[in-house]
Specification:
Elements (H helix, E strand, L loop, with lengths): L2 E2 L5 E2 L4 E9 L23 E8 L3 E9 L14 E11 L2 E10 L8 E7 H13 L18 H12 L6 H34 L8 H8 L11 H21 L7 H51 L2 H73 L3 H67 L1
Antiparallel strand pairs: 1-2, 3-5, 4-5, 6-7, 7-8
Helix pairs in contact: 2-3, 3-6, 6-7, 7-8
Organism: Cyanistes caeruleus
Family: Belongs to the sorting nexin family.
GO biological process, one term: pinocytosis
Length: 454
């Protein structure tokens, strides 16, 4: 892969294709005016094309991103009759517009292939409607994707621009390159999480038939889903408080099936383990990233030193500087691969475990309602008052509880199988990448040693 920059020179980067143009002065710009263009030609088939319009305080950066690799392997049984992807996304300040492309053979849709534009709030609306639908109480509702957040990379870019005077030209260029890659990685994961959410629904035998889901995919106009106001956000907070209180009260409810008691205990313990593992995985990836950043300064120092040394030593210093630059690229890829294959998977399953725990909460609530209806029926029979009404209510509660229990058991068993398969796949892929990068490091070091010997 090669990159062509204004002013000449070629540099390498793997994983993304970027075509960018800057108007005016951006906080990380060295020249202040003008533009720059960048192109990377991928060696593999490109899976998605993204467009990001990044507004800054002093100018606008327009980025078109072509992604080659998905950020996390998903536990999906893809239904060929309903295929969904997000081939394009546009970022405007704090808002991201996603192009949702659907290809289907199902008669429920008006055409076999279509695309619509959706915002993050539309995805949240779809998740909320599925969660609030009573007949889906026995299902694990896929967790809503996280809100797009690019503040971190932007702040780092701002700080880099402010500290430009204290850096050499080479240090600044390499640090800017690293931060650009970080922003693109965040953007890539944002798009991927929204795509995975839709694909999870599409692969579900029940949720894929939901009317609101079809409207989300097919309606070619703006859904006009507004952001929640303060009152609605406070209402959501109250619901979470009520749910927390219910969970405390329900903790004393005696479970009627050992399967669900075991699942509840397992999910609570498993979530804590996953959360701890995720924190340690993030620490590991940051360590690799810090090493890569240190290599930038080491390489720059060796280059500066080479300019002040005699010709014989200069040659060796430049070779070592080149070695550290190559090691930096490998170390950056190690950090990126660990984040995509491990950290993202752990974060993904933290959200999924919460969704599974929500399912168990709904089932426990149905069990409590059923037990209360039994007590109400006993009281009605003792008083010989409203017996038929109490019997009807008891029957409804019984049927609801049994339906949720049957569906929940299937969902949890399927969840376990998919979880094991996803972890197995990702851990194997990560191990293979770790071996590959380790071999690259050994090869680079050995080549440098052989060069010095000769």
């Amino acid at each position: 892969m090669r990159r062509w920059w204004r002013g000449g020179g070629e540099r390498e980067r793997c994983g993304v294709v970027v075509c960018a143009r800057r108007y005016g002065s951006a906080p990380w710009g060295r020249a202040g005016q003008g533009c720059w263009n960048e192109e990377i030609r991928p060696q593999r088939k490109m899976l998605a094309q993204l467009k990001a319009l990044w507004s800054t305080g002093n100018g606008i950066l327009l980025i078109c991103v072509y992604l080659k690799l998905r950020s996390v392997s998903v536990d999906l049984n893809v239904d060929p009759s309903l295929q969904i992807d997000i081939p394009d996304a546009l970022s405007e300040k704090d808002r991201v517009k996603f192009t949702v492309h659907t290809k289907t053979t199902l008669p429920a849709f008006q055409s076999p292939e279509f695309s619509v534009t959706r915002q993050h709030e539309d995805f949240v609306w779809l998740h909320d409607t599925l969660t609030e639908t009573e007949e889906y109480a026995g299902l694990i509702i896929p967790p809503a994707p996280s809100k797009p957040d690019f503040d971190g990379p932007r702040e780092k870019m701002q700080k880099l621009g402010e500290g430009e005077v204290s850096m050499t030209k080479e240090e600044f260029a390499k640090m800017k390159q690293e931060l650009e890659a970080e922003y693109l990685a965040v953007f890539k994961k944002t798009v991927s999480s929204h795509e995975i959410f839709l694909q999870r629904i599409a692969s579900h035998p029940v949720l894929s038939k939901d009317r609101n889901f079809h409207v989300f995919l097919e309606y070619d106009q703006d859904l006009s889903v507004r952001r929640k106001n303060t009152k609605e956000m406070f209402g959501g907070f109250l619901k979470s408080v009520v749910k927390s209180a219910d969970e405390v009260l329900f903790s004393g409810v005696k479970e009627v099936e050992d399967f669900f008691e075991q699942e509840k205990t397992f999910l609570v313990n498993y979530y804590n383990r996953i959360k701890d593992a995720c924190a340690k995985a993030d620490k590991m990836t940051r360590s690799h990233k810090n090493v890569a950043d240190d290599y930038i300064y080491t390489s720059a120092c060796l280059n500066s030193l080479a300019l002040e040394e005699p010709t014989v030593i200069k040659k060796y210093l430049l070779k070592v500087a080149e070695l550290f630059e190559k090691l930096r690229k490998v170390e950056s890829r190690v950090s990126s691969d660990e984040d995509l294959k491990l950290s993202e998977l752990l974060r993904y399953y933290m959200l999924n475990i919460e969704a599974a725990k929500d399912l168990l909460y709904r089932r426990t609530r149905a069990l409590v309602d059923y037990e209360n209806s039994n007590k109400a029926l006993d009281k009605a029979r003792l008083k010989s008052k409203d017996v038929r009404l109490a019997e009807a209510h008891q029957q409804d509660c019984c049927q609801k509880f049994e339906k949720i229990s049957e569906s929940a058991k299937q969902e949890l068993m399927s969840f376990k199988q998919k979880r094991i398969a996803a972890f197995r796949k990702n851990l194997i892929e990560m191990a293979e990448l770790e071996i590959k990068h380790a071999k690259n490091n050994v090869s680079l070091l050995q080549s440098c040693i052989d060069l010095f010997k000769n």
